[in-house]
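Open question from group meeting: does this chain pack into something compact, or does most of it stay loose? Before anyone orders reagents, we agreed to write out a predicted structure and look at it together. Recording both the input and the output here so the notebook holds the full record.
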Amino acid sequence: MANNDRPRLRRTEVPAYLLNNHGIPVALATLNKLASIGGGPEMQYAGRIPLYTREALDAWAERRLSKPVQSTAGRAA
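Structure tokens returned:
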């Protein structure tokens, strides 16, 4: 079964998914840290294994992106 056919991804698969689908580079170490301190994508556990739905990853990616701006000055607004 291909990765695209599975309803949930393992944490090791999340960086590639976020980069390929959203253009957002996120290191596995960053995901590990966020899973510990909070602020990362929503996850579920199957025993000890954290699993992520594509919907949760898509929502988290959208929250990380700013609104469109036309200049660097637009970020501060």
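Observations to bring back to the group:
Residues 3-64 form one domain.
Residues 43 and 73 are 35 Å apart (CA to CA).
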